[in-house]
Amino acid sequence: MRNLDRRQFLNTAGVLTAGTLLSNPLQTFGNKSQTKMKLALAGTGIRGTSFWGKAIVERYPDVTEFVALFDHNPGRLEFAKQFMGIECPVFSDFEAMINQTKPDYVIVTTVDATHHLFIIKALEMGCNVITEKPMTTDEGKCQAILDAERKTGRKVIVGFNYRYGLQFTKLKELLVKQEAGRLTSVDFHWYLNTYHGASYFRRWHGERDKSGTLLLHKATHHFDLLNWWIDSDPMEVVAFGALEHYGKNNAFRGENCRSCPHTKECKFYWDIMAEPHMVDLYVKNEKYDGYIRDNCLWRDRIDIYDKMAVQIKYANNVQVSYSLTTYSPYEGWRIAFNGMDGRIDSWEGIPWETEKLVSQSQLHAAEMSQKGAEEPEEYDEIMVMKNWQDYNLVKVPRVRSGHGGGDVRLHDKIFKDPNMADPYKHSAGTRDGAMSILIGIAARKSIEEGRMVKIEELTDLPILAVRP
Fold this sequence. Notes:
alpha/beta; Rossmann fold; Dihydrodipicolinate Reductase, domain 2; 2 domains; 9-stranded mixed β-sheet; 6-stranded parallel β-sheet; disordered N terminus; Gfo/Idh/MocA-like_OxRdtase_C; Gfo/Idh/MocA_Oxidoreductases; nucleotide binding; TAT_signal
């Protein structure tokens, strides 16, 4: 921990005390003698109805019960009930939903820029909250969430499922054991393919007033992993980014893929009408709110970055080089941890490393699938090499569905056994949610203002060399 003045010390003590008092708000539901946990879902898009909806209904019917659904789109609300296989009231008035159904937990999966509205209101009305990442999209909203949690005594859980993946957990274990010695720097590069990467630019995610850019919506996953692995708080950020591929960077454009006259020449053409689930969830309900799911990738309203590079300095002096690409021919990532005594390398989805060419659309579909983890037939690899020694290859069972098996493990921790052992601190709360998005917010500011941004500028959270 760095040196703190009296004000910072008192602030730190308050944050740590609050975290101790509410370290496990779900523990009462871990006792089977208790009644079922009453859940309300705010936001009935594909993420809400599948990962935070149908999957929970099917996996945990003995301990959970959905008592309400909220959305401004009545068509999606009715489809959500059918798809999730539940019977409960639906609401377009959030406060009325809480007053009438009194849920224990509100699950927030609305548009990113609106997360804070529902998180704060739910806390103020006596509910705990589970929120989809990112927790929110700017520093003001982040501070408001932190203040509301402290004031109300309620708790927010952030759904960082990547932490629970087998490969990422094994990396954490090796780092805790200091297999490469004291950590000094990290190289982390993520590649979204032309199927998955392009999908963000079709949706509301391509507009920064809704998503905060992919430095928030997507990279918050990666920044959280870095914070968790490095076990320290980010301190300073410098970043670069640009929009050079999607948006206005094309000779032609249309209203959306369905009505576009350029389908034969556009390599990114996507036929939403060939996917019944997308038709039922989105196309049939456009008339209620005008949300188009197969928007043109080249529309003028796209104003986020499609290439990003971020340099991060941590309070424990670890340096990170990170990049995100959104139009790669393959989907995957590379990471290297450099230590005083060696190096740890790992990767996923690199074709010449796996020696297996896969359909990129099928790969993403498998990752997002909520089916149970398949029996592993292949392995992912982690290379551990100490200075002046030969390398050691660590094999991790490969699970493609549910984000490397992390989805089920996250759900089990929340809904099945909240008191399960957590030696590597997988569970994430508001401090974790804040520190991940603050990197993205600082990176966005750095790009826009052309300067290095200090994390301490953004909220009142103290910056700690060792995470609490």
